[in-house]
Amino acid sequence: QVQLVESGGGLVQAGGSLRLSCAASGRTFSIYAMGWFRRAPGKEREFVAQISWSGGSTYYADSVKGRFTISRDNAKNTVYLQMNSLKPEDTADYYCAAAATVSRAYDYWGQGTQVTVSS
Predict the structure, then answer these.
(1) Which pLDDT score is estimated for 8?
(2) Contacts of 48 (CB under 8 A, 6+ apart)
(3) Which of 8, 29, 44, 61 is a Cys-bridge partner for 20, taking CB atoms 3.0 to 4.6 Å apart?
(4) Of the candidates 7, 11, 15, 35, which has an alpha carbon nearest to the alpha carbon of residue 84?
(5) Which of 97, 67, 94, 100 is CA-nearest to residue 83?
(6) CA distances (Å), 39 to each of 1, 29, 103, in order?
(7) CB 104 within 8 A of CB 72
(8) Residue 100's beta-bridge partner residues?
């Protein structure tokens, strides 16, 4: 099992920045990749960004490319999402997830952290 705890959400004005953190514990050696997802009010959950645990390859949704940066600190078993130039449409609950090497699927999820961007 892998446990994930997010932090760093909050209220920010449009154009501002926030950094989300996701601390992983448990069987972290089994992690293949870490990702961030979000669910806006009344909408489906959507992919935001992903980083491979070993090589650091990153992928982003088109909607956040150039504004958000995902990074990792393997020594701390922590993944970050630096969010710049925030827009009101970025308002959502943000979830950290871990994909296991065996399944290559996002099997583990954090509890979520709320991000609200005011106009």
Answers:
(1) 96
(2) 35, 36, 37, 38, 60, 61, 64, 68, 81, 94
(3) 8
(4) 15
(5) 67
(6) 24, 28, 24
(7) no
(8) 31
Q: Which amino acid is at 80?
A: Y
Adjacent-strand bridge partners of 47: 37
Q: Which residues, given as ranges, of the chain have pLDDT below 50?
A: none
Residues 18, 40: Cα–Cα separation, whole Å: 17
Residue 10: CB atoms within 10 A of its CB come to: 13
- DSSP code of residue 104: -
pLDDT of residue 66: 97
82 DSSP assignment = E
One-letter identity of residue 117:
V
